[in-house]
Every structure is written in structure tokens, then in C-alpha cells.
Amino acid sequence: MKAWVEKGGYLNERGRRWLSALDPQEVRRILVIRQCAFGDMMAARPFLVELRRVFPRAHITLSTVSRYQYALPRDLIDEVHVLDGEGFLAEQWRSLREPGRYDVLFDLADTSRSRLLSLVTRARVKLGFPYRQVFNRLLFDVGILRSDFHYEAEILLDFLKIMGHKPQYPLEFSLPRHRPGEARHRIVYFPYAAVSRKSLSRESWAALIDQAAIRFPGYQHVLLEGNKAEESGDFLMDIAGRHANVSVQRRLDLDALAPFLAESALLVSGDTGVRNLALATHTPTLGIFYMTVPFRYWPHYEACHEAVFHRDGRVPETSDILGTQESLLSRLYSA
Q1: What is the separation, in whole angstroms, between the first and last Cα of the chain?
Q2: Which end of the chain, C or N, has fewer beta carbons within 10 A?
């Protein structure tokens, strides 16, 4: 097999030999390290779908940490390894050595724990994409470049493109899929984020939904509650009482949330896991950014996603969001 890389990646001699002799049918054990929260787990799903296509006979183990087990893609893997970060050093070391020996290791995390696991795990070949290139030479046989300016789900696929694999586009997440002709006239708003500074204030969200209900009267405007007690939609009750097309959707579990988003016309939110789930269901999204680099969470292989942000990083105003929202709805759903 040819190593499909020129100047865009790292390849040592062992990695080159492995690629040249690679027979995907002979790869039986793969370890994928992904230690991340809800949104980044969503971004890993196309990689796991395509990994199974490249290595159809492999047993795939996903390694994570105890705090990041929500939204694990159990339907796409064979086994979960949880790296123990608590307890005595002997217990943590035993957890590090637990995975055993693998044919292939992919480090999709680039954290101190993932690097340590990559170091101590025995594997014929190790692939990673560290921000600091020194770790390529220290830990990996094959390395790809990492970027803040491309959708991360696509960057992960570069691990397989180096083997000459052609991923499916639009990306396949193996989740319920949005179909524009069947979408309900429903705009969903998710006003929360794991880091509160990444989301607009409650007052800003209330003003946005209040004006959107008037500006887009043909849509039901639904505020989606989050998992935490403080992620309640009670702050919108006054506005919901004044508009027949405004309501609050109480918390949904993950199995119900994916089809709910897929059946909606649009999701409006900041940089959140829920927005990443909407991306994974191919539901149109309007992302509001002012802290996070938007390009890493903004797929361009589909025209149904838009981002509103200012070059100087200031917080977008309600008028900015409504104007972009109107343009996107017109582009997607006008007859």
C-alpha cells in the first residue's frame, strides 16, 4: 500500500514500512484513544464509521476517562476502556497497562493522559496528531497535521486518507438524519454551554427568541432545556405566555434528542455539544461564536450551516443573529 503523504504529515521508517505492507484484512485489534466531552465525541463518529470500513475484521476498543462517558459511540465500537485517574498510583498504572497489545493505536485526544497511554501501550504502529510536533518523534510512527481552521470530524479522517481511503461525503455519523422536505417548522434554541462564558446571557436569549417569534411567525420557536438543574427554561415563561409560537422543551435524553433535532428546521446555539449533535444529524445550524474559533466547528461540505461572529471577537448583537437567521432560513426553505 502506498503512503499517501508528501509534506503534510510525519512518517518515520517504521510507519512507512507498516503502510507499505498493510493488509487491512489482517488488522485484528485497534485502540482508539478519545478522551473528550459530548461534542467532540460526536466529531469522532465519522472516523469510527470509516475505520470499520477500512478494517472490517478488527476488534475496536475506545479508550476514554471516567468523566467523559456520556455519548460514548458504543454502537460503533466493540469495547470501552476507561482510564482510571483516581486511586493509588498502582491502580492508575494498572489501568494504563490494561489495554494490552494492539495492531494499531490512534491517539485522537492529545492530552497528557492519552500521550502516557500511547507511550506504554504496545502496538505495531502508533498514529497521532499532536499540536506540538515534538511528540510525533517521541510517540508516533505516523502523524497528521492538526488545525483550528477545519472541522475536526474531517481532520480525524486524515488518519485514514494517509492510507488512501476515500471517506463518504457528506460525512456519515450513523445517527438519525435531517431531511429538509420532512422537517417540522420548528426552530430550536439551546442557550447553555459547559462554560457559561461561551453562551449569551439569559436576557440576550430571551430578547432573541422574543423578536424571532415576531419576525418568523410561520415557525414554532422552542427553547431546549439542558441536563443540569441550572439549565432550565423557566426564564422564558413570560415570553412563551405572550407568543403562541414560543414554547419550552423539557430535558430530552440522548436517544430522543437526536431525532428531535433531525426533525427540526434549524438549531440556534453557541459552541455546545448539542450543536455538535445537530451537525451529526445534518440538521441546519446557526452557531454563535465570540470565544471559540468557529472554523473548527463549522462544516463546509454542507451549505446548511452558518456561523455569526465578528472579526474583533465582540459578542454578536440580536440584530446580527436575526439577520443571519433570516438569510439562512430563506436559503434553505424558500420555495
Answers
A1: 49
A2: C
**Within a 13 Å sphere around the CA of 294, how many CA atoms are in the beta-carbon half?**
18
Predicted confidence at residue 93, as pLDDT, reads 57
Residue 222 has φ and ψ, to the nearest 5°, of: -120, 120
What digits encode the pLDDT tens for the residues 58-117? Answer: 999 999 988 877 889 999 999 999 886 665 455 655 666 667 789 999 999 999 989 999
Q: How far apart are CA 102 and CA 18, in angstroms?
A: 14
Q: Closest Cα partner for 26 from 2, 58, 4, 48?
A: 58
Give the full edge-to-edge strand order of the sheet including 305-308: 246-249, 220-224, 186-190, 266-269, 285-288, 305-308
DSSP-derived 3-state class of residue 261: helix
The per-residue pLDDT for 97 is 64
> Higher pLDDT residue, 32 or 7?
32
Residue 84 CA: distances (Å) to CA of 66, 113, 142, 259: 7, 10, 27, 33
CA distance 205 to 196: 13
Residue 6 banded pLDDT, cuts 50, 70, 90: confident
Q: How far is CA 9 from CA 136, 153, 265, in A?
A: 10, 17, 39
Question: Could you tell me which of 40, 42, 43 has the C-alpha nearest to residue 254?
Answer: 42
